[in-house]
Amino acid sequence: MNMLIPITRLLALIIFNNDLSSWTIASSFHLLGGKLSLGFKLFDPGFQCNKSFAKVVRLSAGSTYNRSYSNAALVGNILSHRAQFSYSPKMKIYGRPLLSLKAIYVNRFPVLVMQTQTGELTVTANLGVNF
After folding, report:
1. Which of 12, 69, 85, 113 is the least crowded, having the fewest Cβ atoms under 10 Å away?
2. What pTM did the predictor assign?
3. Model pLDDT for residues 33-64, shown as the tens digit of each residue
């Protein structure tokens, strides 16, 4: 039985990191191959930025562009953005409170003439205590 073999190539990865912030730029190219190849390819460059303030507040933002092909035909064209804020103060109580807000916006571009561009926004709020 011939199985599909995933092959992954990382084109670029640049990381900058110090005590207060880290930056990441990543790009990858995925190819699914083998004797029963479906001809599927995925290209997804992305950018991520994180910043912490006094280990209490953390901000994070990033974008990713996904473009996928099947048998050399474009089947997916997506641009997504995400942002996150978290706050976790040190308190003299048992546990550590945490508040976080996360937003993700996904923009799907049409790949066929009959399709329209769509966008989707998801916002999540979390409130809890870490023990």
Report:
1. 113
2. 0.71
3. 444 556 777 777 777 778 888 888 988 888 88
Whole-angstrom distance, CA of residue 131 vs CA of residue 120: 34
**7 touches 33 (CB < 8 A):** yes
Phi-psi region of 69 (alpha: psi -120 to 50; beta: other; left: phi over 0): beta
Q: What is the pLDDT of residue 27?
A: 54
- Provide the strand spans (E) within 1-131: 5-17, 21-33, 40-43, 46-53, 57-70, 73-87, 96-108, 118-130
Residue found by looking up tokens 């997504």 in the block = 80
**Cα–Cα distance for residue pair 2/36, rounded to 1 Å:** 7
The answer to whether residues 81 and 68 touch, using CB atoms and an 8 Å cutoff, is no
Q: What is the CA radius of gyration of the chain?
A: 20
- Exposure of 11 by Cβ count < 10 A (0-12 exposed, 13-18 middle, 19+ buried)? exposed
